[in-house]
Amino acid sequence: MKVFKRIKKAMVATLIAAMTLGAVTGCSSSKSGSVSADSKTLNFGCTNFSDSLDPSSIVNAAWCVSRYGIGEGLYRFDQQMEPQPYLADSVESNDDKTEWTFHIRDGVKFSNGKDLTASAVKKSIEYTFQQEKDGKGTAHPSQFLKYETIEADDEKGTLTIKTSQAYADLSAVLSNPLFVIVDVDADTDMADQPIGTGPYAVEKKNEGTSLEMVANEHYWNGEVPYEKLNIIFIKDATSKYMALENGDVDVIENISNISDLEKVKESDKYNVSEVVGGRTGFAYINQKEDRPLANDDLRKAVLMSIDDETLCNTTVGGMYEAGISVLPSSLDYGYDKLKDATPYDVEQAKKILDEAGIVDSDGDGYREFNGDGKNIELSFLTYDSRCLKEFSEGSAANIEKIGIKVNVQETDADTEWNKLTAGEYDLLSTNWLTVQVGDPVGYMENWYSKSEANYCSYKNDTYDKLYEQLLVETDEDKIKDLVQEMQQILVDDGAALIHGYYKGNICSTKSVEGANVYTADYYWISTAIKPAE
Fold it and tell me: What are the residues whose beta carbons fall under 8 Å from the beta carbon of 242, sequence distance 6 or more?
């Protein structure tokens, strides 16, 4: 699929605000970790998305291995979400798009000095799938790749994958970090020190606080700019800004407090890279039959009680664009043709509950089902990243206005994911890149009732049939029509609480150049980030 047709050019354009006046006061020579004091060390600040670095353990772990420059994939997305050759330098397929042969690039080594072979690639991919099969990993690579066999020919340097369904472009699928290549035979702990082919290698993991990394002396794709790389975990949004301002970090990902971001943009000390791409902030709605939101009337009223425009434009200061669908309006999947089934209307929401017998029978301010005296209480899980905490708290305040009690619980990304997969929530905020393999097929599986990735117990027979058609469809126009119809079904059923569509950023001091945000959001650390000349 030619993905650039799916993303409006105006929405994926990267903005580089590079002011040229003044020195970086936050990076004075007294700061031993800053680039101006030590041009051989880069300090990168970010949210800690996963305590594990085993790509099979959890989705966030796979993304971290890619983002931190530890591991790489066979292919890599460019800014238009087109897959480009990387660890593989070519691919061929048969006519029915079910057999794909990748040629593994010559001369690539893992950071431990071992050669990257077709057999090593095969082991890496199969490891992630086996972990999923054994229940040891929750990354769910099968959500994106359905294969029958993988064969490696080290003499020819080829990897052949036979799939159980046709794929428009398997190289796009393998650009997903779930398929990052690591040395599974290495004598290191995969969770703490995975061995990849990226420009940097983990030297030490300080649990929950930082990663100490060094340049990969065997790197295949040019000179590695820094001898040392420190990944420093910063929990909250304001602390990210302060870390940049104080010179504790040279680069920071996603300053999500709008006032702090405006300070950075207005200053002559920093570079700012921004992109609006394919990310949606939303809350899963648990519709398991024993959970409150399985009730259609309650779910509809909850969605109608939330003032999306105010939350996006005021609460999070324009960091998100309000919307109604699980797919962003920036993607060309018929968003403009969708109709909102639950527009903001507090009085109508109250009326729906009253007519459904969901009332406050004892006058304590909270409603019960059929006046049974037991207040309805919703658990709302969130974590502090990309304004999700603010959305959760703001949504909860809105919902309480219609007499529904909401308990917001802030946790970390790993814990939230584990509770999601276990179904231990009512509402759960998250932020997804919706076109992880260049199209939304894998993402839309979140609401396919026959999928293990359906963590919200949503079920709609028509949606399931359309999704099954989507799996085998390769015509771009037909895919677009199917996805549009599926989106409307989800909107009509109130399948998810949509926060909005996110605008990502990466900010850096003037002592660094090349720190740009990517549409795919898979790549933070690369050899493009280097000391400014």
Answer: none
Residues 316 and 416 in one domain: yes
The whole domain housing 148 covers: 50-195
- Per-residue pLDDT at 38: 62
Structure tokens at 264: 């950075």
State CA 339 to chain mean position distance: 26
| Domain final residue, candidates 195, 225, 247 | 195
- Give the contacts of 247 (CB within 8 A, at least 6 positions apart): 24, 25, 26, 27, 28, 31, 34, 509
* Maximum C-alpha span of the chain: 77
Q: What are 104's strand-pairing partners?
A: 88
| Last-in-domain residue among 180, 195, 210 | 195
Residue 385 is encoded by which pair of tokens?
Answer: 């990243």
Q: Note the pLDDT tens digit of each residue in 478-508.
A: 999 999 999 999 999 999 999 999 988 999 9
CA distance 85 to 87: 7
pTM value is: 0.75
Residue ranges in 276-387 assigned as alpha helix (H): 296-304, 308-310, 346-355
Q: How far lies 296's CA from each of 80, 225, 395, 494, in Å? A: 39, 56, 18, 8
How many structural domains are present in the chain?
2
Q: Could you tell me the CATH number of the domain that includes residue 191?
A: 3.40.190.10
pLDDT reported for residue 5: 40
SS3 per-residue string spanning 477-517? HHHHHHHHHHHHHHHHHCCEEEEEEEEEEEEEECCEECCCC
How far is Cα 443 from Cα 440, in angstroms, rounded to an integer? 5
Nearest CA to 312 among 378, 240, 395, 384? 395
Q: What is the pLDDT of residues 83-93, one digit of tens each?
A: 999 999 999 99
Running DSSP on this structure, what letter comes out for residue 142?
Answer: G
**Does the residue 184 lie in any domain?**
yes
| Structural domain contains residue 244 | no
